[in-house]
Amino acid sequence: MNRKIYVLITVLALTLCFSQAYAAKRPVLAAGAGYKKMVNDLCSNYQKLKGTSPELIYGNMARVTSQAKVSGRVDIVIGAKWFLDRSGIKFSKLFTLGSGKLVAAMIPGKKFENSSSLESADIQRIALPDPDRAIYGRAAMAYLKNKGLDKKLKDKLVIVATVPQVASYVISKEVDLGFINLTHALNVKNKIGGYEIIDTADYPAIEIEAGVINESPEVDDFMEFLKSDQAREIITKHGL
Prior knowledge:
Layout: H1 3-23, E1 28-32, H2 36-50, E2 55-59, H3 61-71, E3 76-80, H4 81-86, E4 93-99, E5 102-106, E6 126-129, H5 135-146, E7 157-160, H6 163-171, E8 177-181, H7 182-187, E9 194-197, E10 207-212, H8 217-226, H9 229-237
């Protein structure tokens, strides 16, 4: 083979390898499913600024943190501090995005004025995320216990995996009311009858954090973006 052609092929091969290696540096970000639209919005804006964005994984927080711990592929996790603290993951950095808020979302024609509304015959089925796997399920159960309703309402409760699943039950009118977070309620406000924000004094505080597992220049750059005024505006718009 002509030496010049051989050198050219070698250079092209190395260039391809380096290009693939650079592409592989995209951070992998895993987040709670209830924050999908907010995270998508953040990554979309980051993409416009940088020309690239993290690869995304969504699910309930128990699954997200378990996958992050076992796979070794996840670089950043966004979710409730309560889950991150108990995940067993060693985070090198943590940044608080804001405080999550529990809401009661209703189908058209149903009302929620206070906790006594849940006992009325008008509310027959109440959905909430799994308290063992989703922070808003935990918050909803804490709220019901605080009001002395957890046992009274047990026959009305419908436990599902995630906040989006609760919302889908409300949208399809399979339940009368569902407990979700404000962020997701804002996402689906035109598809439900309405929502009411639950008093934050009635359940444990919910801090939403971004935790870094694997550091790299790309991860650091994205984390700096999360601290920017542009990101803060997006986060606030989504209810944190």
